[in-house]
Amino acid sequence: MISQQHQALSSSTGSISLPRVLSASLSGVVREVQSYLRSHATPISHHEVLSSAVAGSSIVWRSTHASAFELQKYAWGKLAVLRREHQALPSSEALKSLESVINSFVAEDGPTPQMGSTASGSVEIQWLANGTLVSAMFDTSGEYNIFATDSHNEIIFDEDVPFGELANETLGSKLRGLLAEMGASVTVRPPTWR
Amino acid sequence: MSGGARRVADEEYVVRRFDPDDDTHWTHDDAGLNGKLRQSALRFQADKPDQSDERNCSVYQETKLAFLGLDKWGAVEEERPNWGVATITAKEAREFSRDGLPAPNPFDVVEDEFPDGREGVHVRDGAHAAITFHVPVAGADKWCRDLARRFVAERRESA
To answer: ipTM exceeding 0.90?
Structure first.
């Protein structure tokens, strides 16, 4: 019966493959089902068992869909935290460049832009999906570096962009394409997402 | 601190602890694969006022942890059970380079047992070491980003 409940839960998620991160939570569901069955003489229905098990487990199904606005808002919110906690003190030029990168490259259903600070106290955005890493790192002067590695840590591109300029058409196109490809592999956003 | 300090052997692994729940330490992989350490997790600090040009990031020598009866997870404080560990060899930390990074590699890895010299500290302090560099360094942010991504990071659930 436990295997039937497990299969029922799997099929209830439809054709979407379960993210790897949920595997530990599924074990929790199985334990909850076992506990429920030990505590109740006769469950009313499979649905009752499953509902109780999921409610008692750590599974929380979050949609990975995100509009450009939501992703950009997430990035700005994280930057605000960094600045408030003095973990990053970006210059006004760095902030202008950061804004142009966020506006140009953070698109609907893309990978999550994750903010961090640099050794010099400036800011960096990283995107990571399926082992592919993209970094946009901003200098005090406003110059920024666009850097990407594939899942084997081989460099895809590593280019500096002067302050006041956008990434040239070739780099911009490559970056948009890579981020879109990464976005297609998103299955679970960071724990702090929504 | 590095003046006169013994250099950690090339083949020695050093361990840096990090908080995987702190998204400035750890970049999450949106496809559910293992995340990556980021440079914010390597906090380089000036240790002493009279060594203001030196920046140090605390790590632990894995062989010394073992000598002290600890494995690499012994670098993590008991009150932070969710923290992870990231490792790199001293050789890689001090020798890596590539096109796009200003040469030469600025890092060194030195022993620094019991850095505070305080009584009653945790036994792991006997394995304390430091990754160091001297400022100013051209392209310091790029160097630190590259250093961070070369660590092999583990979280508790994958241990």
So the answer is: no
